[in-house]
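Structure first, sequence second, as always.
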């Protein structure tokens, strides 16, 4: 029997898939986005960064901690998990690596002592996804990514993001973070529970920077994400039609070029200034702040980040999200 159907002559709108890491990379530097996600074979990168290694180790230790029964989530066990997951990539030498290993154990053990971790989170390294729009119209994109931790408190979800960078975050940073806002939107849809609160947990200082989103503040972040995603997709489409890659994905040079993962493949970035050393963005050691090997250039807040980017793009060897992006064999658009 012939099936009846409807054809209104309208092609269904394709939803753009976006992640915070891709949007942030394109906003920071379209050239870096192209080198990370579009060009194949993947262009030459720098080696691993020590601050990314440190961030990945701390994240992996805390993730493993929640695999244990609540009674075993002790400060001593957290420190032992740092040892288990430790990598030395990017540090100046074994002495520096050893000092930061001890520091990471102090951070994680203090964090566990200061926070009640007896309740199981709703998600740890949880992938969340949701259709969304920047305005009141139909969904134009799918926002998705991997959140460090999603708690449930008093019937609502809380997105938690760990930080190990040089500078302690504040409420403004938590509120303005596009990544946290998109995780909140996606977590609410995925887990069918309201989500408005987002938190940045800075282990070096013990700071918890929190923000309560409203429908309006989340809508503004979605509008911003939609605008970036549209620009990104248009550039990718024009490139597929034979457009000039350098014109469509221009370099935005600045201080971040010093620690960009794709500096070896970007002449514009090389001309912007000298390269950073692989340990320059480490949080300073309090007992030796003047040590030339504890970090000096940059504040560790941009570009390479904490080595703990979301979206499941953190390298298992401690390399940054940008350095592992080449494993994503997408066409370069927001798909």
């Amino acid at each position: 029997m012939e099936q009846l159907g409807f054809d209104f002559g309208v092609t269904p709108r394709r939803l753009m898939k976006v992640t915070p890491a891709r949007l942030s990379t394109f906003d920071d530097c379209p050239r870096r986005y192209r080198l990370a996600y579009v060009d194949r074979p993947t262009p030459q990168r720098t080696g691993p960064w020590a601050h990314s290694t440190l961030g990945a180790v701390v994240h992996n230790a805390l993730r493993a901690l929640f695999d244990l029964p609540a009674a075993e989530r002790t400060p001593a066990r957290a420190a032992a998990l740092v040892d288990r997951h430790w990598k030395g990539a990017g540090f100046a030498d074994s002495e520096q690596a050893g000092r930061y290993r001890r520091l990471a154990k102090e951070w994680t053990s203090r964090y566990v002592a200061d926070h009640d971790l007896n309740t199981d989170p709703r998600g740890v390294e949880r992938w969340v996804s949701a259709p969304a729009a920047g305005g009141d119209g139909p969904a134009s994109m799918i926002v998705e990514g991997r959140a460090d931790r999603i708690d449930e408190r008093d019937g609502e979800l809380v997105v938690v993001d760990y930080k190990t960078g040089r500078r302690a975050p504040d409420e403004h940073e938590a509120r303005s973070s596009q990544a946290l806002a998109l995780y909140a939107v996606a977590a609410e849809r995925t887990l069918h529970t309201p989500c408005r609160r987002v938190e940045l947990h800075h282990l070096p200082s013990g700071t918890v920077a929190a923000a309560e989103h409203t429908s309006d503040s989340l809508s503004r972040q979605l509008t911003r994400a939609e605008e970036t995603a549209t620009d990104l997709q248009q550039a990718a489409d024009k490139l597929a039609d034979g457009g000039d890659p350098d014109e469509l994905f221009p370099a935005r040079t600045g201080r971040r070029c010093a620690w960009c993962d794709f500096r070896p493949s970007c002449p514009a970035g090389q001309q912007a200034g000298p390269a950073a050393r692989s340990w320059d963005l480490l949080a300073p050691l309090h007992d030796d702040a003047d040590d030339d090997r504890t970090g000096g250039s940059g504040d560790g807040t941009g570009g390479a980040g904490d080595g703990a980017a979301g979206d499941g793009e953190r390298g298992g060897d401690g390399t940054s999200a940008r350095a592992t992006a080449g494993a994503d064999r997408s066409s370069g658009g927001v798909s």
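Margin note: The radius of gyration is 21 Å.
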